[in-house]
């Protein structure tokens, strides 16, 4: 089996996928350990409720952190986009002004050359 076939059969997983699998596996393992531990029903239900509350709290904290980071990222993207837009407009204006100036210079040069050609024609033509 060559390297390409191995990559097709066993695709490389991202770290995020691994983290999700580890988290789910840990939760399943914790639940199994609680269910198979020799404890009375009331105590087991109390432990399960406590673990559920802990997981819920951590999930809320994680969601809050993700929300804050997403808001910060949105602000950064907006700021960078505004800066980029301003920079592009300034560059465009600079290019347009440069083209106008070159066009005016070429026009002046053409007028000057045209005048010189007309003068040369008048000087050479018999009167």
Automatic annotation (TrEMBL):
Keywords: Membrane, Transmembrane, Transmembrane helix
Sequence segments annotated as region (Disordered): 107-127
Transmembrane portions of the chain: 18-37
Listed Basic and acidic residues bias regions: 108-127
Short name of one Pfam family: YtxH
InterPro entries: Desiccation-related_membrane, YtxH
Protein name as catalogued: YtxH domain-containing protein
